[in-house]
Amino acid sequence: MAERTPWSLSGALRGMFAKRTIDQETWDDLETALITGDFGIDVTDEIVADLRAKVARYNTTDPKDLQRMLRETLEERFSKLDSTLKLTERPAIVLVVGVNGVGKTTTIGKFAKFLANYNRSVVVGAADTFRAAAVEQVATWAERAGAHIVRPQQEGQDPASVAFQTVEYAKRNNIEIAIIDTAGRLQTKGGLMDELTKIRRVIEKQAPVSEVLLVLDATTGQNGLLQAEAFIEHAGVTGLVLTKLDGSAKAGFVLAVQERTGIPIKLIGQGEGINDLTGFTPHVFVQNLIG
Ligand code: GDP
Predict the structure, then answer these.
(1) For ligand 1, is residue 273 a contact (CB within 6 Å)?
(2) Could you tell me the CATH superfamily of domain 92-290?
(3) Is the CB of 220 under 6 A from ligand 1?
(4) Does ligand 1 lie within 6 Å of residue 272's CB atom?
(5) Is residue 189 scored above 80 in pLDDT?
(6) Does 181 count as an annotated binding residue?
(7) Closest CA to 251 of 2, 3, 8
(8) Complex ipTM tops 0.85
(9) From start to end of the chain, where are the E strands?
(10) Which terminus of the chain is less hemmed in, N or C, by CB atoms within 10 Å?
(11) Residue nearest to atom 2 of ligand 1 (CA)
């Protein structure tokens, strides 16, 4: 796991926690580690001040106590929002949105496999009908995951009608979860948001939408967030999926994404393979972060 969590601070913190006592150097090292991890000056200051107060309150000089307190403080911040997926409706309908290139198609395949591993039946609706290649790509991933697939019947079919047929297919075949792919072309933002609104309206005539997952490339930092703003404003996003956490992503950004958008992270992608997607569990994330 260690080599696949480049955002981990455990290397930077190891020396600090191995020392005999907490001293000024400890605080300096902690500050440097958090700033290097992209937590930003303000959050770093808050965390350090909080820990200094705790260390004083418990009257300890043991770096092991500081390690535990750091874990608690971070876990508290990372778990402010509820990161559990809400998939209790039958069928549970999950719309997946995001800008092209962030890893949306791969995420849908991995998510279908993730659910299949829990013995949940899945149908994937290829409602990004604008690009024929997108339909084929998502179909390949769905097949690999052992999921059903609903494709457009003709090129350029209205995405909302593919979404409609996907939900119908799920109902008819008693499939538990319908994952619907959507377009991610950014050039025609207005058109895309109208398209997403229509998909939603059409689906909601049949059944409620359980989750709208926005896929974000964690290595793009602030830029990725700016690009995603339109989705957050218009698409009723209920959860975030952070992809490419095996890349150059920083843990501080992961926290910032949640705190800035007010939307919980629900899934994280850490590789290109079909099994490289997990739920976001703050406890596990912080464990990997601190070591
Ligand atoms: P889409 O245009 O948003 O549908 O993006 P794709 O799913 O086609 O992914 C774009 C690229 O990102 C592909 O090369 C994927 O293999 C890669 N990718 C997706 N998720 C991850 C991830 O979690 N880690 C890494 N390293 N690469 C990823």
Answers:
(1) no
(2) P-loop containing nucleotide triphosphate hydrolases (3.40.50.300)
(3) no
(4) yes
(5) no
(6) yes
(7) 8
(8) yes
(9) 92-97, 122-126, 148-150, 177-181, 211-217, 239-243, 265-269, 277-279
(10) N
(11) 101
77-113 pLDDT, tens per residue? 999 999 999 999 999 999 999 999 999 999 999 999 9
| Domain at 10-78: CATH code | 1.20.120.140
With a 6 A CB cut-off, is 269 part of the ligand 1 pocket?
A: yes
Q: State the pTM of this model.
A: 0.95
How many alpha carbons lie under 13 Å from residue 258 in its C-beta half-sphere?
Answer: 23
Is the model more confident about 186 or about 200? 200
Burial of residue 50, with CB atoms counted within 10 A of its CB: 0-12 exposed, 13-18 middle, 19 or more buried: middle
103 C-beta closer than 6 A to ligand 1: yes
DSSP string, 237-271: --EEEEE-TTTT--HHHHHHHHHHH---EEEEE-S
Contacts of 23 (CB under 8 A, 6+ apart): none
Average pLDDT over every residue of 121-137: 93
> Is residue 236 annotated as involved in ligand binding?
no
Map out the domains of the chain as residue ranges: 10-78, 92-290
Residue with CA closest to ligand 1 atom 20? 103
Question: Was 205 annotated as part of a binding site?
Answer: no
Would you tell me how many other CB atoms lie within 10 Å of the CB of residue 291?
17
Q: How confident is the model at residue 221 (pLDDT cuts 50, 70, 90)?
A: confident
